[in-house]
Amino acid sequence: MPITYRRLSRAAFLMATSTYLTVTCWALPVGQQPDQQNNSPGSVVRRIGTVKSINGPEITLTPDSGPEISVNVQSNTRILRTAPGAKDLKSATPIQLQDLQIGDRILVGGKLGDNGSIQASAVVVMKLSDVEAKHQQDLQAWQTGVSGLVCSVDPSAGTVTISTACFPAKKEVVIRTTSATTVRRYPPNSVKFDDAKPSQLSEIRPADAHYSGDQVRARGKRAGDGSDFTAEEVVSGAFRDIEGTVNSVDASSSTVSVQDLLSKEPVTVKITQDSQLHQLPPEMAQRIAMRLKRAAGGETPGPGNAPTGQSPAGAPSPAAMSPQGDNGGSRRPSGAPDLQQILNRLPRLSVNDLHKGDAVMVLSTEASAGTGIVVMLVTGVEPILRAAPSASAASILTPWSLSAPAGDMGGP
Length: 412
Fold this sequence. Notes:
- The chain is an alpha+beta fold and 412 residues long.
- It folds into 3 domains: 10-132, CATH 2.40.50.140; 136-238, CATH 2.40.50.320; 240-397, no CATH class.
- Helices cover 14% and strands 33% of the residues.
- The strands form 3 sheets. The chain has a 5-stranded mixed beta barrel. A 5-stranded mixed beta barrel has the order 7-8-9-13-12. The chain has a 5-stranded mixed β-barrel with strand order 14-15-16-19-18.
- The relative contact order is 0.15.
């Protein structure tokens, strides 16, 4: 759900600085290796955290866990600056205490004093500015990545084949993983990227007769025509798609009951601050409906058989939905329009904007306790449901849009 990611969350920040946890050659004097079990005065310890304040040679450190710690930097303390993602200190460069700033991440090693402070022998620094720059690079990588519904998985070959949602036409992409690829998965009750846990390809569920397939997003490098993709990171999740009409809205609990057209049963979903709610402009809904009809009839959509007209104020032009139209930068690298980015330009709705009888398409988490959490809910979809009653929200709204490091591009 493309939430504009305006700040680096604590969880994402800690993940970005996880290199500290793997660095083993940080510069402690020979024979002074940290004893994490011994916190008595004189013992050698190390702490990881964020610089809260600097007063002369004293740093106040806010550790990732536990109370604040005073760090005393001495004249012989080694201070090294390392880059985000570094696996060792081979490329680290020496810096001075005055180069440190509030917000920097540091790893401190040294002896524990009588008052609980640390007499630092080594400080490894990851500058906040470096982390933010790396984060922006990652955002761009996600934007130019791939996403779609899982068609097949081959854990032994390390591949996942997905069907991208360049509606109504679709394209299969083979995502290739390596030993260096990070694989994570959303828990059943969360749509927050920070909640995604380490996973493996065998946990990804492909489509079958009863399931449209897990949703996957990957960042990495494309090859050739884009049908082959080598992933640096893969995130997957099981999400339910619902098409139907609103039965009732409970604003006090932020829940909505939807009559599912497929199952003929009411489904309750919960709207959170991470949920994306949008109303599709009528012209855009008609455009999508026409494309779906033509696809079902085997026709190739083109500009000659597309309706013209003005969009509502503030809404993208219907031409944005045509491969030949100008969507103002809402195209994927392959040239196909990205509905997620187009929707992101529209005004956001709230639960109070939903009414009984509204036609909706919903992507939600799998309901672990009877109620799924809304990932994305789109109203104004009556023409789409009439044109293609069997079209799933997952196939049209994918890539799903989560509170991921996704900026304006949607997706994990």
